[in-house]
Design brief:
292 residues; alpha/beta; Spore Coat Polysaccharide Biosynthesis Protein SpsA, Chain A; 9-stranded mixed beta sheet; two-stranded antiparallel ribbon; 33% helix; globular
Length: 292
């Protein structure tokens, strides 16, 4: 039976150690890209793709995420009294984007498979999406929206994929060995985590967004700790590949932002800022002056 993807899990429980000390008391997912936190870009992608329920798996010191997607009565009253209609409508819109469900990450291990397993009781027997809360791909149409028709056609797990142009960067990603199914759709034969550039099976990195079927949960429940004694979602995907086809969709018109990385985070801010018509003229002049 064809299923509509209604739920998305967004893991947001990590410590954000690469951004210390700012992340000591502030979630890395709340770091701004110009004027919106990273996680809002992720949520908006999911909502634009038709997702109704957003399950955010949090940890300690993550309350700011819940507050951001909640109503703020005192602030709304102040904005209304001071005739700041644009700002008022924006913060009201944020709170009404989706049905938000928050759970705390629990378990004896760390790793990016754990938050998905923690949300099993909320997903039940439905297929669902997973998107990371500290990175995103900007594309038109949105990444997840490009993946959904492929899932609807094949009813099998899907992972988003992007081409890595710089060969040396292949060592930063999970690189897939694939065979083409049609167009930008590939069947994944295996995923090699962070290979040496000369040993990479392709230049197609599979990461960032997943559409998973409920049969991944027995695998997650029995998953053994891997690298750094953590539970890894790619390890579960490797097991899933042995049982059923798993496809990759190469996202078109895409720009990947690894905003969990300091340098890439700065690049993302500059990229979005120079495309902002409100102030990009002055900013471009400034950038030209400081690079002379």
């Amino acid at each position: 039976m064809n299923q509509k993807i209604r739920k998305a899990i967004i893991p947001a429980a990590g410590y954000g150690t690469r951004f210390l000390p700012v992340t000591k008391a502030m979630p890395k997912e709340m770091l701004p890209v110009v004027d919106k936190p990273i996680i809002q870009y992720v949520v908006e992608e999911a909502v634009e793709s038709g997702i109704e329920d957003i399950i955010i798996v949090t940890g300690a010191n993550k309350r700011a995420i819940e507050d951001h997607f909640d109503r703020a009565s005192e602030l709304e009253d102040w904005l209304k009294e001071n005739h700041k209609e644009k700002e008022l409508e924006e913060i009201k819109r944020i709170a009404s984007l989706a049905n938000f469900i928050y759970i705390r990450q629990k378990g004896n291990y760390y790793g990016n498979a754990l938050p998905v397993l923690n949300a099993e009781h909320l997903v039940e027997n439905e297929s669902f999406a997973v998107l990371w809360g500290d990175e995103f791909i900007y594309s038109q149409p949105p990444r997840l929206k490009q993946m959904l028709p492929v899932f609807e056609k094949y009813q099998t797990p899907i992972i988003s994929a992007v081409r890595i142009k710089n060969k040396n960067d292949l060592a930063r990603y999970g690189i897939a060995k694939v065979k083409q199914v049609e167009g930008n759709v590939f069947q994944i034969e295996k995923i090699v985590e962070k290979p040496k550039p000369q040993e990479a099976p392709s230049n197609l990195a599979t990461h960032g967004a997943y559409i998973l079927t409920p049969d991944v949960f027995p695998i997650l429940r029995n998953l053994k700790p891997g690298k750094n004694n953590e539970l890894w979602l790619p390890d579960a995907i490797s097991e899933l590949i042995k049982k059923r086809p798993v496809y990759a969709v190469e996202i078109e018109n895409a720009r990947y932002y690894d905003t969990g990385n300091k340098l890439e985070y700065l690049k993302a801010n500059i990229d979005f800022a120079v495309r902002n018509a409100e102030f990009n003229g002055e900013l471009i002049k400034f950038l030209k002056n400081i690079v002379k």
